[in-house]
Amino acid sequence: MEVSCPVAPADDWVVRTAGEVRAEAERRHPGEAPTCASGISPSGPVHLGNLRELTTPHFVADEVRKQGVPCRHILSWDDYDRLRRVPAGFPESFAEHIGRPLTAVPDPCGQHQNWAEHFKEPLRESLARLGIRVTEISQTQMYTSGAYTGQIILAMRRRADIGAVLARYQTRRSAEPDDDEPRNATGEYYPFKPYCASCGRDDTTVTGFDDETTQITYT
Ligand SMILES: [Zn+2]
């Protein structure tokens, strides 16, 4: 059965965007498959609103593939994010893990590897049912494998330059207590904040960085 579409293909944002993606991918990385990207922080139950994050790139990636071009849709799991709060319906005892990476928080049901995996699984099942094909990337794996170490060291060495740029646009400090405040008490800016090596939380304040040895000190 033929179903007529009220939107002309040329006016369709998916077709238009797929064309832009192919052209931009060819300009930046000639001969390589274009990449569409989604990102989800598996910090609590993944709700319908999170689906838009995935469906928008999916429609575009799907259209690129329909046009006969391979296309990669990556799903970046922001599972190295800190646990910010205990979601409603979960025991308050999890509050002791606030500030730890989502992959370092225990699984609430006992059947998954950790907190993050507990919330990834139902989304994976939904994506499979919807036919949304993604290549998963774990940011825990990326950070702990050292994939970003070079960029982090570069940012730390250029912290004064970065801090000066930020200061031009920063009008006031955030009122939210757990908001990322990258300046320490003496007003120095550090673009990187470590998870504490002893308690695993990120309630840390960087007190120094040795540009030569790359040794970081924090309290
Ligand atoms: Zn679980």
Care to describe what's here?
- This protein is α/β, with parallel strands linked by helices and 219 residues long.
- The protein has six helices and five strands.
- Strands 1-2-3 form a three-stranded parallel beta sheet. A two-stranded antiparallel ribbon has the order 4-5.
- Helix 1 crosses helix 2.
- The chain is globular and about 70 Å long.
In brief:
With 219 residues, this protein is of the alpha/beta class.
Task: Summarize the helices and strands and which ones pair or pack.
Blueprint: H1 13-28, E1 35-40, H2 48-66, E2 72-77, H3 115-130, E3 135-138, H4 139-144, H5 149-157, H6 159-169, E4 206-209, E5 216-218
Parallel strand pairs: 1-2, 2-3
Antiparallel strand pairs: 4-5
Helix pairs in contact: 1-2
